[in-house]
Design brief:
Elements lengths: L1 E4 L9 H18 L3 E4 L13 H11 L4 E8 L5 H14 L4 E6 L6 H8 L9 H13 L20 E6 L2 H10 L3 E3 L8 H11 L11 E9 L3 H19 L9 H6 L4 H11 L3 E3 L1 H15 L3 E5 L5 H14 L1 H9 L1
Helix pairs in contact: 1-2, 1-12, 3-5, 6-7, 8-10, 11-12
């Protein structure tokens, strides 16, 4: 089991406090036995502080010693492949054997922000296979002799573990063809989970990286000592997603703000459809929910996203999950 951290910024907090809470959570989940800890790239979103995964990963790696750290993910359309190769090559050189480079093919933001990041309107998600091939060639030094980038050296040249991320079948199939591990965003695209994982496994070709498919599934989880408290803590996630869908991203609401929001019937229906795959409840409810998800997906690894604004409540959620899965976490820690 692993952790996906969005570094949530609630309406009663600050980005600085959110980033400090991420470092505290990384230390705590390492002690609990979680396997890896990923941070996600988001831009122009006041409620998420992790705009620069490479920078945050560096701080998290210094604060921990055994936890694998990575990006969930770096959105490749936003960056020149050489820049990503240099950033994560440096991270891997500084923290050998601990860095994951999770790559996504969507910008993860609006078109204006995407243009401001890359300064071009020519790139699209359709360019992703070529951009990915370029990134891997920079890292492995495998450009053909006649390629204009052949003489470029990535310094430092560490090679992190490369993952493909997705919420549909495109990256699933590409990960399979390339023999790479694949992570699926079940927490916001649950309707596509089974089909994408089947496509990944059926497309898989053994590579120097993997001899068999390796799939990770990310689940939205809120666990508390009581079911009532878990429902209260999960309320901001629905309102936050509603505002994002309406093009009005903001700070993560407090539970009180979310529970007081006057949802229209249409808004309530949309939130229900978004959150129906979330695993919310007390420890036993969450244990059963995650067991069901693992059985459904045959995932090799589950990654838990708990977008809770209160750092203490968020840590308690991960503690309860760890207590409910001692055999899984102990096995990871021993390995």
């Amino acid at each position: 089991m692993s952790v996906l951290d969005l570094a949530p910024v609630s309406s009663d907090s600050t980005p600085g406090a959110a980033l400090r809470a991420s470092i505290d959570l990384a230390r705590a989940t390492e002690a609990l036995g979680y396997h890896r800890y990923w941070v996600a790239e988001h831009h122009s979103m006041p409620g998420i502080a992790s705009s620069s995964p490479a920078v945050l990963i560096g701080y998290l790696a210094e604060a921990t010693s055994t936890l694998r750290l990575g990006s969930g993910g770096v959105m490749l359309p936003n960056h020149a492949p050489l820049v990503v190769a240099e950033q994560f090559g440096m991270l891997e050189t500084m923290h050998p054997g601990r860095i994951d480079l999770g790559i996504g093919r969507a910008p993860g933001t609006d078109q204006v922000t995407a243009h401001a990041l890359r300064r071009t309107t020519d790139l699209s998600a359709d360019d992703f296979p070529q951009e990915l091939a370029e990134l891997m060639a920079f890292m492995d030094g495998t450009f053909p002799e006649d390629h204009p980038y052949r003489r470029i050296k990535v310094v430092p040249g560490g090679r992190p573990a490369i993952w493909l991320l997705g919420s549909s079948g495109f990256s699933a199939q590409l990960a399979g063809v390339l023999g790479l591990p694949f992570a699926f965003a079940h927490h916001f695209s649950a309707q596509n989970t089974d089909a994408a994982l089947e496509l990944y496994r059926s497309s898989f070709r053994p590579s120097e990286t993997l001899d068999r498919p390796y799939a990770m599934v990310t689940a939205a989880v809120v666990c508390a000592d009581t079911a009532q408290e878990a429902e209260r803590l999960s309320a901001p996630m629905g309102l936050s997603m509603l505002r994002l869908r309406k093009g009005e991203p903001g700070l993560l609401p407090t539970p009180e703000e979310a529970l007081a929001y006057p949802y229209t019937p249409q808004e309530a229906g949309l939130v229900a459809s978004i959150t129906e795959s979330h695993v919310i409840g007390d420890q036993e409810t969450v244990r059963r929910g995650l067991a069901g998800l693992r059985e459904q997906t045959r995932a090799d690894e589950l990654m838990i996203s708990s977008n809770i604004g209160d750092p203490k409540a968020r840590l308690r959620s991960f503690e309860l999950v760890a207590e409910a899965h001692p055999e899984v976490l102990r096995g990871i820690a021993d390995a």
